[in-house]
Amino acid sequence: ILEEARAQIGVCAQKESLDALRIKYLGRKGVVQDLMGRIPTLSAEERRSFGAGVNELKKNLEALFTEKETGLAAAAAGAAKDFVDITLPGKTPLSGRLHLLSQVEGEICGAFSRLGFRVFKGPEAETEFHNFEALNIPLDHPSRDAFDTFYLRPFDVSRSGFSGREKKLLRSHTSPAQIRALKTCPPPMAVVVPGRVYRPDAVDASHSFMFHQVEGIAVDKGIRFSDLKGVLIAFAKEMFGAETRMRFRPSFFPFTEPSAEVDISCFACKGQGCSVCKKSGWLEILGCGMVHPHVFKSAGLDEKKWRGFAFGMGVERVAMLKYGVNDIRLFFENDIRFLEQF
Ligand code: PHE
User: Which reaction is catalysed here (predicted)?
Assistant: First the structure.
């Protein structure tokens, strides 16, 4: 009986079939009980050895069942651990994206590149010459004051063999790249220059000591102010919508003549006056003008032969207007809850 049971238990793969076997052998109407039932019919000496045998059998059977049960439980636990539920929804990996400022810089440069402009880059650590003199910004101009510009520690000019023109600073605008672009790409040329600029302003909702600009310059024979207007209007319509109107206000920059500041009609209220445009209906977006003869001279070009226009705009300002961002600091805090909205 024990050997037969051992064989049957051995091939058992499921708890249910093991339970059935247990009932067959150890149950109330099982094999062992049946043998016990025969004991009263036996003679006194037979009873003793028979009874001992049945007890032995019962103990052995119980041991076999317990051992098998433990084995089955362990196998089931192992299977559960390796089990993959392919019906569960997957975990979506977080995908990265460009920072809003990079997106807007790309939109601006993209719009101008479709108008024929190439992208040009200039250094952030710029010479004082390129940032000021070459752009016709006089020595006593307030923006040259140490409080308006980050000067880099001057090195010993006399020993290095460089002239005083090599004194460096963090560029306060992207306009010095006009000079570099004119030298690198002889006219006729048209480039936009995206990049960082630095001014030691106290940080608040609308000021940052570092921000981004996109500069533009186009030079050819016979370029006129109307070319500047046409290019900027095409840009504004692409950037802010086809109904956008533009307003040129006379202004002054040392490196353009004549100069203008440009407003676009408020896209939020269509020029009716709202909180975005402080009820004026207009939003200032850039400065521009016709390239000053002094700038051509600085770049080694014949100022009688060439005409050009230039413009410069703040990327943060465009992004704040277009995407309704009300604090410039949000761009630089890198709070993921802000960044992932764009
Ligand atoms: N550089 C000027 C500024 O930072 C903007 C500008 C660029 C104006 C080119 C005219 C022409 O304010």
Answer: tRNA(Phe) + L-phenylalanine + ATP = L-phenylalanyl-tRNA(Phe) + AMP + diphosphate + H(+)
- CA 233, distance to chain mean position in Å, is 30
Closest CA to 39 of 60, 54, 29: 54
pLDDT band at 138 (very low <50, low <70, confident <90, very high): confident
Question: In this predicted complex, what is the ipTM?
Answer: 0.98
Sequence-ordered strand ranges (E) for the chain: 118-119, 125-127, 168-170, 189-198, 210-220, 246-253, 256-265, 282-291, 307-314
**Would you say the CB of residue 212 lies under 6 angstroms from ligand 1?**
no
pTM of the predicted structure, to 2 decimals: 0.72
Split at pLDDT 50, 70, 90, the class of 93 is confident
133 annotated among ligand-binding-site residues: no
Pick from 173, 219, 223 the residue to mutate for probing ligand 1's pocket: most ligand atoms within 8 Å of its CB: 173
Q: Are 224 and 253 in contact (CB under 8 A)?
A: no
Which range, 28-37, 272-281, 296-305, has the best average confidence (pLDDT)? 296-305
Q: Which atom of ligand 1 is nearest to the CA of 173?
A: 4
